[in-house]
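Input record (one chain):
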Amino acid sequence: MTEALTEEELAFLGSMFDLARAGDTARLAEAVDAGIPANLTTSTGDSLLVLAAYHDHPETVRALLERGADTARVNDRGQTALGAAVFRRSERTVALLLGAGADPALGPRSALDIARYFDLTEMLSLLTARRPEEV
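The corresponding structure, as predicted from the sequence alone:
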């Protein structure tokens, strides 16, 4: 049987999501190095990686990837970190995620779908340059 987390513990874990949103790479990396899961997710399935990508913090994305963050996590809305980076038009973050093996076609709202839906031709070019079979 597992014990429920205390309010203090929940607040601390919640602060990790704030660090990802803010791009506080050093503090977030230190917390993950100390044992916070690199794939910690919110109640809606947003991982630290999704939040860092959505808020356009490529260095935070890099640090999370180096610590084992999973590029294949899909949130409750069917989005991935790569999809978030595409939506934000962050070439650096897209390149980092693709380099880490992120799948542009993953999820019901895939990065490819997002690029096509919003007519983000520069993002579509980045996604398909690495994976022409996904066009």
